[in-house]
Amino acid sequence: MSDILKQCRDQIDAIDEQLLSLVNARAALAREIGELKGEGPIYRPEREAQVLRRLLEQNKGPLSEEAVTAIFRSVMSNCRALERELSVAYLGPQGTFSEEAANKQFGGLSAPKPCISIDEVFRMVESGNADYAVVPVENSTEGAVGRTLDLLTTTSLHICGEITLPIHHCLLRQKDATGEIRRIYSHAQSLGQCHEWLNLNLGGIERVSTGSNAQAAELAARDPFAVAIAGKRAAEIFDLSILAENIEDDPRNVTRFLVLAQHDVAPSGQDKTSLLLATKNVPGAVFNLLAPLAEHGVDMTEFGSRPSKLGIWEYVFFVDIKGHHQDPHVAKALHELEQRASLLKILGSYPVAVI
């Protein structure tokens, strides 16, 4: 047995040396490409999406698709860092699901920029103090994140990517706390996602909304009579005990995040375009507004409304469609749609989330 074990380990050592050589060869080519490109974005979401899709098609296991994407995102992240570190703004502090989403998309964060609010996340990129922003836009249980939608109506930033992140909540508390629980800290969205579990297990206890789940964990770490709803990473950061895991009401709970930047993104082959629309408040206006999408065979994947804040009972519409705005059939539909809309803003065309 010891001889077989040694043979296996020797083979692993040999493979590791090959991997090291190949990864360094890839990094050298990536750096050369960066020098040839000159000025411009070093993070190309469309190119990375194409690479990941190709690798997933070739993956025969035993590594899962999630493992393959995580490994190669990390490789690409470290190759990019040879050109320049990317600064990424997100809703902080450390331990939020926004940070987890940013780490997932960028293969780790070399220059993280945690912010105290979604407004600040937008401002960091708009002012040039960060390269990219990661913001939550909707949850499968609680729906749209209103503040993100409101800021998208006025920002000059482009959506250049999306991230889907499974959300699993834990109930956290000080490790030495033994008294009664008087308060539950968490972000409003998380309180909503765990509403029924809380009613069943902690009914009647005060629920306190916080700016983020990490902030909730930080407050619970200082309050012996409180618990927090947050993720496992927050428990590690703030040295809290996990009283219960997976307390979300829907086990398929997923949050979608957007990646924002000052630049647009080229087509990747599997893209999505997000639009902001408005029309006059007359009978049949919305039907007539969206007709060009059907006429040109453009698939609408999402439609939602939001008060415009320009007048009482006036609304803007957020629409997601399949395809890139440069795709010929999409471009034709958007041209006709522009003639009918009182407002059309292309928020961005970007690769569909990979895993």
Question: What's the gist of this structure?
Answer:
The protein is an alpha/beta fold and 355 residues long.
SSE arrangement:
Layout: H1 2-37, H2 45-58, H3 65-81, E1 87-91, H4 97-106, E2 111-115, H5 118-126, E3 132-139, E4 143-144, H6 146-152, E5 158-166, E6 170-174, E7 183-187, H7 188-193, H8 195-201, E8 206-210, H9 213-222, E9 226-230, H10 232-237, E10 240-245, E11 254-261, E12 271-278, H11 285-295, E13 300-307, E14 315-322, H12 328-340, E15 343-351
Parallel strand pairs: 1-2, 1-3, 7-8, 7-9
Antiparallel strand pairs: 3-4, 3-11, 5-11, 6-9, 6-10, 12-14, 12-15, 13-14
Structural overview:
The protein contains twelve helices and 15 strands. It has four domains: 14-81, Chorismate Mutase Domain, subunit A (Up-down Bundle), CATH 1.20.59.10; 87-167 and 254-260, D-Maltodextrin-Binding Protein, domain 2 (3-Layer(aba) Sandwich); 170-245, Periplasmic binding protein-like II (D-Maltodextrin-Binding Protein, domain 2); 266-351, 2-Layer Sandwich (Alpha-Beta Plaits). The strands form three sheets. Strands 1, 2, 3, 4, 5 and 11 form a six-stranded mixed β-sheet that branches. Strands 8-7-9-6-10 form a five-stranded mixed β-sheet. A four-stranded antiparallel β-sheet has the order 13-14-12-15. Helix 2 (45-58) packs antiparallel against helix 3 (65-81) and helix 11 runs antiparallel to helix 12. By secondary structure, it is α/β, with parallel strands linked by helices. It is globular, with a radius of gyration of 23 Å. The model has no long low-confidence stretch (mean pLDDT 92). The chain starts with a helix and ends with a strand.
